[in-house]
Amino acid sequence: MRFTQGALGMLAQRYKGILKKCHLLNTLGAVVVSAFLMGGASMAFAAAPIIISDSHQVADSITEEYTTIDVNSGGSVSIARNGKVVGTDVTVNSGGTLTSGKNLHFGNFSGAEPNTGLLANTLTIDGGVVTGTHLGFGNGGVVAVNGGGRLTLDTMNDNTNSAWGGNGKLTINGGILDIANLSIAHDKLVEADTANSLILTNNGQLIVRDALAITDGSFTNTLGGAIKAGKLVMDGQSYTHNTSNSLNIIGMAGGGAFFTGTNLTVSQGDVFLGSDATPSGTHTTTADVSVDGGLLQVGHGNWQAGDLTQTGGQVKVSGNGVLAVGKLDQSDGLLTVGGTSNTGKLTVDGSFANTTYNAGTAGVAVTGTGVLGVKYSELVNAAGDDFLYTATQKAINVAEGGTLLLNGYSGSDMTVAEFKTLSDKLLSTGSTGTVQGINVDTSGASLQDVASAHLAVPDAVVDGSAGITSGAATVGGVTGATVISGGASLTLTGQGAAAEVLATDGVTLDASTLTLGSNAGSAGSGTLYGDIDASSSTGTSTINVVNGNYTVAGEIKGAHTTNSTNINVTNSGRLTAQSLELGSNDTINVGNASNSGTLIATDISMNGGRIDFDPPFAAAGDTSNASMGGLAFTSNAVDALMTVGQNSMVSLGSTDAEWLRTEVQRFQSDGKGLWGQDITAALALRTPQTLDAAGGINVDGTWVTGGSAATANTAHFADKSLLVVDAAGVGSGVALSGEAGGTSTLIVDSGAKLHIVGGQDGETLNVTGGFGASTKDAASWTGSNLTTSTALLSATGGTFDTANGAYSVSLKANAVASSFPMLSSSMGALVDRMVIQTGVNPNSPNAGVRFISRAMSDNYIGTTDRNKAAATVEGAAQMAAVGAVQGSTLSAATAASGAVLNRTSMALPRTDMSQAVAVRQDTDGSLSLDSGLSAGDGLKNGLGIWIMPLYQSNSVWGMKAENFKTGYNSNLGGIAMGADYTINDMFRFGAAFNVGAGYAKSNGDFNSTDNRFNFWGVSLYGGWVYNNFGLSADVGYTGNYSKVEQDMPASMQMSDLKADVTSHAWNTGLKAEYKFNAGALDIIPHVGVRYLRLVTDGYDVKSGGTVFEVDESMQSIWTFPVGVSFAKAFETESGWQIKPQLDLGVIPAAGDVKARSKARIPGVDSQAEMKMQVLDYATFDGGLGFELGKGDFTLGLNYNLQASEHRTGHGVFGSLRYEF
């Protein structure tokens, strides 16, 4: 019996699970290894065919050899990057896949056989999918991609003959080759079956994601398939398109050159620039473009080219595409700018020549909301009353909504009559658009005068009270009640009008058109006061809203007769309407096949009219181009036939359209589904809604402009639709109910998704009900298609009632610790209690509930960053400690005690925070230094006053705060001053006052927190000296006021947290010293004990309300400083005495070195207690300084260093003292 390596590999793969269960896998492995050892090199392995109909994986370092390999439907072959499969002929049939982590090689490689990937003689893709990184050919290698098949690569052999191999051949025979980059010689890209070539035939498609380079000569495309590329590189040669199949150049991300060559010519077929979603950046070429047949069309994005010559065929600039060319020379053919429902813009920077306009066949036409920009000096004569060249320049047809924009006009203002003379020459008979770009004096002119001249003066305000009955006008605004009739067209831009007032007294439409905004300029805005009334229209009336934000402060009234009113909100237009009253024949289009729009409206009554939402998708995951709706129907009764189509998001019961966009973005950022791929249309129910019998809802991301209206009395949720229910807004009601008679139908398709925002433990959320006979796929709105916005709640779908469409979801609280393990147990218990008592509501009026809900919800932070969510909550609840309130109070209190002890210490005046020094004259007339005490001789009787500047900086890090680490950097400065009196050369008593301010900024795991604080205090102190022994005592009070502010992550969408915190400390201590005289050097060991009672008053953490209520906390801290000072005095001949000093010590601490924060959420009957370390248990204390004195006057300067495990402090202190 002969075994193949592949057969052994297959055996292990197919039966691995069974062998493991039977504990025989190791046994089989041992048998196989033994067979190899016994057979040695003489053991024979023969290749055999294999048919794969299930999953087959080839791991790294594994080689499998076969003859023929057939991958059938349901079969998949996955070759690891360092795995290898060898065969003769490989076929991947429809439903099968083959993926190589590295290369695909076909043919004979003459001994230099590749070591990894797939190696065979031929590959045939008959409807299947094959993916690899690189495709290489050896002698005789053949690859065929037949209809329905797809081959996806990053690279393949380049354009040289030798690299393709002796007779290598790749045929795209109705299938698709998708490759990142491709470089190929012009004679190797062919249609006919040719060896050593890439053959594109039978309507196959070549997709080059980045650059397609055709080298070694000019190329005339007669291929039998389509080409789609990011850019086309012709190596300095020309490209001619002469095939019925298309070329689509989609542009590169960020823009840049889209065509590198001498000339781009279209003779037959279609050449598209930007036919997909809008490419970013500007796409340029210096090459000239010629069209003598076929179609050249710019669909999306910004494009620049050399000169445009047209001798036939068609040129279209539509969608939201923009094309700029050097000059236009048209002798035949049709050039169209704009489209029926879209925008396009063509700018000609040089000379302009065109042929006579003939509808649909020849000349230049501007349609839809298109804009044709031409230099005034290249089109108009010096007199300003005709074309510059009447022989080669012919009248242009500008349809309603279109604009002929004359750039660069610098002459004096024309009169309206003079302008009319010119526009009559520039525009062909039947034009209903406008001409813009010339300065025209409209004073005294009526709106009809402006319309008759087809004049666009977008910054002029004109009296419209006489109305218009013909023509087209574009103005900034109108005054007086304005009537548009007789098919006339009026555009209001809001420019130049006071406070951007579009109309002062409303507009009445009668079989005419009103446009708010203009595509000829930048985005605008404005408000139309009064109504737009088309209720008595004798024909179809149209309202367009484009390129900006426009508000109708009154009501929009549609036709209630057999006539219709059409409202189009496109080209990034946004319409906000106070009221909509339309009829069954009326339609609102929000977005279209080219671009998006937004509709915000209240008090909507559609009476069976249509509302359709549809723009094209941008990139997967990109929601920026979605059409949006924020709609509030009268009595929450949806009486519109409303379709939420592709790339559309609509909220019902709220005008906050952006709320849903935010929810979708967070839905996908949490990995629940990608917009444009896993979810394609979204509807939010913010309050309970009822479907009117005349209305219908269709949420279907496959619906596009031109599709059928939603079915009346039916709610349909298609595959990849997303229904978002606001639990707080819906409350105990039903999110979506059928009409009162129970005749409505609910249809929920497979793949429909349901997402719950907020909610409360134990709540049953009624999603639908009150319908008639209804259907729901078993997998929709449940399981993986049912999600919540927070890990604090899980949702379980109930039983769908097919009789009435009733469907509810049960919410259950999840222990917060299971999703946020970094949250302290005490805070976790508080959050759990909140979920039970108040529920999760990211928009709750209770600021605490709102804060916790957002931090714990995936729509804001939640499980997208579990540690950040926990840190946000814990840091807010311990805001005072995180902001160094306790630390700054402790520092200020220590500064005060240190200042007064300098007046009673035997050592050279110095503390960790401050110092004071003194000089006195002895009985023999000599000077000596003391710090309020003589150098062993007692105290100087009498009054002494002193003043001391204070400065210190602290760096604190790694302090434990439950499961997190935190710290801060702080600086404080201030001044201390005091007076004391000495009697009997032994006893000194005094009082002092200190005041100062500082700033601290946190670091570590919590959100950045700032603290700007002020402190003040009073102290009483006393000292006693006997020979070389000294004893000091003090008691003091320090108050501190801190304004603390904590940054919030942008995703929380709320203002920063703020708290005003007051704190104080009672501070008392005792210090003993003994001085040893060692010649000129004094050695003074010292020991002490100090008690500090630190109280942080209760405070509220606020952000649009109270987030946390934090109780008062108290800390009792004991310290036991011990150390030794070294000092030496020098005296100058002039009587000045200088005394340097060094002090070394350590300060152990005990007691409450951790600050406790007890926090409550308003309305929740529980609290969380957290601890944060504010002081280390042992601190090194060192200082170096000197004093300079003469007579009763003394100056001093000292540097101090304190260092511990988590803190380093630096201080620089000066002193000034005078004794009487």
Task: Specify the CATH homologous superfamily of the domain at 876-887 and 914-943 and 950-1210.
Answer: Autotransporter beta-domain
The CATH topology assignment of the domain at 876-887 and 914-943 and 950-1210 is Lipocalin
Largest sheet: 33 strands, parallel
Query: What is the structural class?
Result: mainly beta
Helix content, binned percent? 10-25%
- Basic shape: globular
Beta-strand residue percentage: over 45%
InterPro entries: Autotransporte_beta (IPR005546), Autotransporte_beta_dom_sf (IPR036709)
Domain Autotransporter: 938-1220
Please provide a written account of the structure:
This protein is mostly beta strands and 1220 residues long. The protein is globular. The chain has 14 helices and 98 strands. The termini are far apart. Helix 11 packs antiparallel against helix 12. Residues 938-1220 form the Autotransporter domain.
